[in-house]
Predict the 3D structure of the following.
Amino acid sequence: MSDTPGIELRWRRMLLGEAPALRRGRAVFKLLPSDPRCKLCNAPFRGIGSPLMRLIGKQPGKRNPRFCNYCERVAQKYPGGAEIELSLLFADVRGSTPLAERSSPTEFGRLISRFYDIATHVLIETDAIIEKLVGDEVVGLYFPGFAGPEHARQAILAAQRLIEDIEHGRPGDPFLPIGIGIHTGTAFAGIVGSRENYSDFTVLGSTVNVTARLASAARAGEVLISAAAGEASGLPLSDLEPRRLELKGHSEPVNVRVWRHRAAAPALQPG
């Protein structure tokens, strides 16, 4: 008999940071000294508590090392998922095809590696789960259980830092134009794929598609913030340029605010 309702509940609790094992871990593991530790369950990654954590299989996770691999192990053990509200960040390199044509494969590889390196750092520091780094695109997922209730704010903060660090980094760094889309809504998050061959963690649904379309519509140096993400963030975005977009595959236009580097941007503080 299928345990789909039970698996869905397990996933929902995990993505909200409310799983009973996480609550128990917070109470017990905080007694073990040493930082850094998992931001979700307090498991120490260093110091005298770390050998015990390794013994029970806890270590920094692959999708964000600020969290332990407990959730990754649960995900693989219980294929499935749940619908949950989250914020998403899609960032990709503008004009990557002509850029590749003008560069040698090695030079282009270095540019994309720099994009990955900076994006990974920013996403990790803002408590995103890195869904994928592929081609010229990076996708970060901001779940309430990991990024906190201000997940939309965290996503917008990350987008601003990405533009600043990648396009306007250290003197002498090569210029790399990127566009970013930010959206908040409900999506399915879980393990999908073939049980026999290949499966992976991903997010699916209209919210994901809208975010991808926003990233594609963003010009170089722009962050397109959907009205839903802006409202959820609680940030004062009214001074930013409004734009109404017709997105391919969507019947209703999407209202966004446009943030640009050095534009009048909201003053954000890391959550």
About this structure: The chain is about 40% helix and 25% strand. Residues 263-271 have pLDDT under 50 and may be disordered. The domain at 81-260 is CATH 3.30.70.1230 (Alpha-Beta Plaits). The two ends are 43 Å apart (CA to CA).
